[in-house]
């Protein structure tokens, strides 16, 4: 299992597909074996995992695994203890009540890098910093949580997933580092990586699931037992004289309705 830690800069898309308007992860990482596990929004910064392990994404985002993700959040206004307590108890969002979060007011850290463009500055309205840890992965969850308690998010940086700490690794925006999974207890219970199986194929009792497996002989051809024998023709495969005719009792009128279309 290969795991690369990446510090995603602001205004970079969490995807490998090229985009005409924004930089993407492919602008920094070119390894074709890696896939993104735990995306960040365009306007968020910080820690991301990239891996060749198919099940890692669900492992770190599913609430049942209690894999906490920690964010340094700059909010609009001087956040109150009452607002922090609401975050700790759980906030009612449009998609339901959040699980209790760990929320602590902190000072702006010394290690913090400058953002380009910078966060807007208004002398009449102060800002404050909060460290928030959650074990869920809803869309823009932290931003929605702080807005619900009255303090909209201005800047959001993910600093930690489990015990993997971006600050301790010392990565600056755009930098990456491959880590050894065996050195971290977070990855000891990661499920076995399984090959992709198509959802369009229905798993039958005794079957393999995923796409059907076709065995080939020495010449590279499918075995005769695997080849599907052609059965009844489908209607689109029939000639006009082969298509079934509608049976009537002789009283059916021909269809002359235009079905909403204007005559040409």
TrEMBL record:
<dbReference type="GO" id="GO:0009982">
    <property type="term" value="F:pseudouridine synthase activity"/>
</dbReference>
<dbReference type="GO" id="GO:0016829">
    <property type="term" value="F:lyase activity"/>
</dbReference>
<feature type="domain" description="Pseudouridine synthase RsuA/RluA-like">
    <location>
        <begin position="3"/>
        <end position="147"/>
    </location>
</feature>
<dbReference type="GO" id="GO:0003723">
    <property type="term" value="F:RNA binding"/>
</dbReference>
<dbReference type="GO" id="GO:0001522">
    <property type="term" value="P:pseudouridine synthesis"/>
</dbReference>
<feature type="compositionally biased region" description="Basic and acidic residues">
    <location>
        <begin position="186"/>
        <end position="196"/>
    </location>
</feature>
<dbReference type="InterPro" id="IPR042092">
    <property type="entry name" value="PsdUridine_s_RsuA/RluB/E/F_cat"/>
</dbReference>
<feature type="region of interest" description="Disordered">
    <location>
        <begin position="186"/>
        <end position="264"/>
    </location>
</feature>
<dbReference type="InterPro" id="IPR020103">
    <property type="entry name" value="PsdUridine_synth_cat_dom_sf"/>
</dbReference>
<dbReference type="InterPro" id="IPR018496">
    <property type="entry name" value="PsdUridine_synth_RsuA/RluB_CS"/>
</dbReference>
<keyword id="KW-0456">Lyase</keyword>
<dbReference type="InterPro" id="IPR050343">
    <property type="entry name" value="RsuA_PseudoU_synthase"/>
</dbReference>
<comment type="similarity">
    <text>Belongs to the pseudouridine synthase RsuA family.</text>
</comment>
<dbReference type="GO" id="GO:0006364">
    <property type="term" value="P:rRNA processing"/>
</dbReference>
<dbReference type="InterPro" id="IPR000748">
    <property type="entry name" value="PsdUridine_synth_RsuA/RluB/E/F"/>
</dbReference>
<dbReference type="InterPro" id="IPR020094">
    <property type="entry name" value="TruA/RsuA/RluB/E/F_N"/>
</dbReference>
<feature type="compositionally biased region" description="Basic and acidic residues">
    <location>
        <begin position="218"/>
        <end position="229"/>
    </location>
</feature>
<protein>
    <recommendedName>
        <fullName>Pseudouridine synthase</fullName>
        <ecNumber>5.4.99.-</ecNumber>
    </recommendedName>
</protein>
<dbReference type="Pfam" id="PF00849">
    <property type="entry name" value="PseudoU_synth_2"/>
</dbReference>
<dbReference type="GO" id="GO:0140098">
    <property type="term" value="F:catalytic activity, acting on RNA"/>
</dbReference>
<keyword id="KW-0413">Isomerase</keyword>
<dbReference type="InterPro" id="IPR006145">
    <property type="entry name" value="PsdUridine_synth_RsuA/RluA"/>
</dbReference>
């Amino acid at each position: 299992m290969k795991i690369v830690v990446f510090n995603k800069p602001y205004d970079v898309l969490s995807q490998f597909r090229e985009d005409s308007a924004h930089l993407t992860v492919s602008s920094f990482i070119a390894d074709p074996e890696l896939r993104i596990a735990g995306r960040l929004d365009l306007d968020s910064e910080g820690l991301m995992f990239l891996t060749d392990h198919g099940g890692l994404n669900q492992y770190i985002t599913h609430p049942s695994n209690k894999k906490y993700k920690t964010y340094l959040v700059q909010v609009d206004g001087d956040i109150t203890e009452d607002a922090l307590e609401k975050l700790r108890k759980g906030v009612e969002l449009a998609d339901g009540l959040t699980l209790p979060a760990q929320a602590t007011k902190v000072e702006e850290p010394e290690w913090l890098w400058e953002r380009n463009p910078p966060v807007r500055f208004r002398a009449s309205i102060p800002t404050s910093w909060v460290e928030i840890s959650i074990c869920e992965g809803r869309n823009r969850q932290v931003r929605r949580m702080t807005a619900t308690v009255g303090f909209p998010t201005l800047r959001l940086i993910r600093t930690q997933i489990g015990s993997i700490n971006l600050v301790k690794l010392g990565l600056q925006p755009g930098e990456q580092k491959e880590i050894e999974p065996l050195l971290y207890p977070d990855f000891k219970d990661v499920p076995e990586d399984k090959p992709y199986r198509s959802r369009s194929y229905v798993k039958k009792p005794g079957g393999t699931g995923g796409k059907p497996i076709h065995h080939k002989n020495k010449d590279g051809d499918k075995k005769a037992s695997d080849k599907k024998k052609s059965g009844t023709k489908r209607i689109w495969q029939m000639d006009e004289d082969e298509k079934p005719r509608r049976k009537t009792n002789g009283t059916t009128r021909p269809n002359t309705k235009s079905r909403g279309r204007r005559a040409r």
